[in-house]
């Protein structure tokens, strides 16, 4: 493979951050774009706001990239606003890259809401499980669909290939991320251990018992690279999950045992994290001071609302990986290890205590 030059958009997020590190470790030249980029080994920071067209063009001007990986989004109060804002971000990016004459491939990371609908109508209509990439779009607005259409149009106009990666509940290292179940559960379990309260499953009884799956951020990074450099994977959409399936009633006690807390099933009336953790801010500040942690603001670590959305679903959610397997992507990740390895990294980085 000739040396590839990647622009990772959203390089401080859970998907983009892990991707940038992976590509750099594989010998790619990597530019990491974010509003407040962080330098890392082999990653050149690019500061830009995707909604500021002028600054974005200035930031990427002269970057002779071969690949673009879009791993960024901004949550808005309604799906209509999600469509407008997140669609504009992708449009502005490709307008800014019109001078990138060697651009070969662009990848877009979306998610399982492709099959479940946006947050405001989450699961009210859904595709049949297991979710497959060739299932038709759901009716109504969905900013994932808008971003896909902009990607397809840009690829046709500018002559590059594309891939779309529909990841489900990404588990990986990232701080200050709006969709971060792994870190959220680590913070929740730490608070339970420190206070002696039980580690109560905060979601629905249905999700407690249904089969489901998740996606390790490191596996997502591998699939993104594979799709970029594998011709038969070009111009395709792919589900992205670990490859195993599980029930939360099986995994939850394992997470509790890791932290040495009493794991409890969902109570008769569900107890979402936003309710359970409503007074978590001062408590976490005390824990951070006691153990010398790097972040005392719990709101920069935990995304209670998003974890509640994932664990509170009352519908089955399983993604089919046959398409990737048939085309040669055979990577697999055991889900408990995704969590435990993340927890070890959080301890090493002093995000949570080692106890």
Describe this structure in words.
It is globular, with a radius of gyration of 20 Å. A 7-stranded parallel beta sheet has the order 3-2-1-4-5-6-11, with helices on both faces. Strands 7-10 form a two-stranded parallel ribbon. With 355 residues, it is α/β, with parallel strands linked by helices. The model has no long low-confidence stretch (mean pLDDT 95). It has 2 domains: 5-167, Rossmann fold (3-Layer(aba) Sandwich); 172-213 and 245-348, Rossmann fold, CATH 3.40.50. The chain has helices spanning 14-25, 53-60, 79-96, 113-116, 143-158, 181-195, 205-209, 217-229, 248-259, 273-276, 280-291, 304-311, 322-327, 335-348, and strands at residues 5-9, 29-34, 43-47, 67-70, 105-111, 161-167, 170-171, 199-200, 211-212, 215-216, 236-240, 246-247, 263-264. Helices cover 41% and strands 14% of the residues. The chain has 14 helices and 13 strands. Helix 1 (14-25) crosses helix 8 (217-229) and helix 2 (53-60) runs parallel beside helix 3 (79-96).
Write the layout of secondary structure elements.
Layout: E1 5-9, H1 14-25, E2 29-34, E3 43-47, H2 53-60, E4 67-70, H3 79-96, E5 105-111, H4 113-116, H5 143-158, E6 161-167, E7 170-171, H6 181-195, E8 199-200, H7 205-209, E9 211-212, E10 215-216, H8 217-229, E11 236-240, E12 246-247, H9 248-259, E13 263-264, H10 273-276, H11 280-291, H12 304-311, H13 322-327, H14 335-348
Parallel strand pairs: 1-2, 1-4, 2-3, 4-5, 5-6, 6-11, 7-10, 8-13
Antiparallel strand pairs: 9-12
Give the integer mean of the pLDDT values.
95
Q: What is the CATH fold-level name of the largest domain?
A: Rossmann fold
- Total domain modules: 2
The total count of strands amounts to 13
Question: Can you tell me the residue ranges where pLDDT is under 50 for at least 5 consecutive residues?
Answer: none
Question: Could you state the CATH homologous superfamily of the largest domain?
Answer: NAD(P)-binding Rossmann-like Domain
Describe the sheet with the most strands.
Answer: 7 strands, parallel
The secondary-structure class comes to alpha/beta
H/E element sequence = EHEEHEHEHHEEHEHEEHEEHEHHHHH
Gross geometry: globular
Instruction: Indicate the proportion of strand residues.
Output: 5-15%
């Amino acid at each position: 493979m000739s040396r590839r030059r990647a622009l990772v958009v959203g390089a401080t997020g859970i998907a983009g951050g892990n991707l940038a590190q992976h590509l750099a470790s594989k010998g790619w030249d990597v530019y990491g774009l974010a509003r407040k980029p962080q330098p890392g080994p082999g990653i050149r920071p690019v500061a830009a706001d995707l909604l500021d067209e002028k600054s974005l063009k200035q930031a990427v001007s002269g970057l002779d990239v071969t690949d673009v990986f879009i791993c960024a989004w901004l949550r808005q109060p309604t799906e209509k606003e999600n469509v407008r804002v997140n669609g504009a971000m992708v449009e502005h990016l490709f307008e800014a890259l019109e001078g990138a004459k060697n651009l070969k491939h662009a990848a877009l990371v979306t998610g399982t809401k492709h099959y479940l609908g946006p947050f405001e109508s989450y699961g009210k209509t859904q595709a049949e499980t297991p979710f497959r990439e060739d299932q038709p779009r759901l009716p109504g607005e969905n900013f994932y669909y808008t971003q896909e259409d902009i990607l397809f149009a840009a690829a046709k106009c500018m002559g590059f290939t594309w891939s779309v990666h529909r990841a489900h509940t990404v588990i990986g290292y990232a701080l200050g991320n709006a969709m971060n179940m792994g870190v959220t559960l680590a913070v929740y379990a730490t608070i339970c251990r420190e206070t002696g309260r039980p580690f109560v499953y905060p979601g629905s009884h249905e999700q407690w018992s249904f089969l489901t799956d998740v996606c390790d951020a490191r596996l997502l990074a591998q699939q993104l690279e594979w799709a970029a450099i594998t011709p038969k994977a070009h111009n395709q959409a792919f589900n992205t999950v670990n490859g195993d399936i599980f029930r939360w009633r099986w995994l939850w006690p394992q997470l509790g045992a890791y932290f040495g807390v009493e794991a409890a099933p969902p109570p008769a009336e569900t107890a979402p994290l936003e309710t359970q953790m409503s007074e978590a801010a001062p408590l976490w500040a005390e824990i951070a001071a006691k153990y010398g942690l790097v972040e005392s603001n719990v709101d920069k670590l935990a995304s209670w609302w998003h974890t509640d959305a994932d664990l509170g679903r009352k519908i089955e959610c399983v993604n089919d990986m046959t398409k990737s397997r048939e085309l040669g992507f055979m990577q697999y990740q055991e889900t408990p290890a995704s969590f435990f390895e993340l927890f070890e990294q959080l301890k090493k980085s002093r995000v949570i205590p080692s106890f």
